[in-house]
Amino acid sequence: MTYCSGGRRTEVDHILVRRQDLEAVKDVKVLPGKDVATQHRPLVADLSVLLPPKMKERAEPKIRWWKLKGPVKSELKRKVLATGLPNPDGPVNETWRQAEQTILLCASEILGKTKGGQKGDKAAWFWNDEVQKAVRVKRTRSKSGRRLDHRKILPNTGRIKDVRRRRCRSEKCRDGQPVRETGTTTG
Question: Smallest Cα–Cα separation from 72: which of 101, 115, 98, 106?
C-alpha cells in the first residue's frame, strides 16, 4: 500500500502512462521498507523501453604524427622550408592560417594519413605477447590447482579437521558440533 497510518492502508498513488505505451509496463509495485515522506511508500513501475540503435562512430583520417622520428623529422623540415612559410609581417590570423595549412599539407604528404573508418578498441593497446603469456600461465595454474589434492597444499587443514573429529568423538555431538549440558549446540 502506498499510504499507511495507524493500521489503515490505502492506495492513492498512480503511474500515468499513455495508452500506446501501456504494453511497456511490465510490473508495478510498492517498496514497503522505504519511506518517501512520512507514512508514504514509493510506488515503482518496471518499464521495457526500446532504445534507438546506436550509430557507429566513424573516425576521421588523421595525420600519423607518431612517425615523426629521426630522418623523417628532418625530411619534413626540409619540405616545409622548400614549400615556404608565409611572411610574418602580415596580419597575425592570416599568417597563422597559411602556416598551419602549409605544415599540415607537408606532414600529410610525408607522414601519411590513417584510413579513418570505425573507431577501434582503446583498451587493446596493453594486450601484447607478454600479457597474453602471463594470462595463459595463470589460467593453467588455476585449472591444475582445482585438480590438486588440497591436503598436500595445505597440510594444516587436514590436521585441524582431524582434531575436530576426535573432539566430537570424545564428547557428545550432534551434526558435528559438541552438545552442551543444556542440550543446545555450540557455535
Answer: 106
Three cell numbers at 97? 592560417
Q: For cell 557507429, what's the residue? A: 56
Amino acid 85 reads L
99's CB contacts (< 8 A; 6+ apart) are: 85, 86
> What are φ and ψ of residue 128, in 5° steps?
-100, -175
pTM above threshold 0.85: no
**Mean pLDDT, residues 135-145 taken together:** 79
For residue 182 the three cell numbers come to 543444556
Band (pLDDT 50/70/90 cuts) for residue 156 is: low
Q: For residues 79 and 83, give the distance between their C-alpha atoms in angstroms, rounded to a whole number.
A: 6
**pLDDT score at 108:** 93
Label each residue of 68-111 as H, E or C: CCCHHHHHHHHHHHHHCCCCCCCCHHHHHHHHHHHHHHHHHHHH
| DSSP code of residue 63 | B
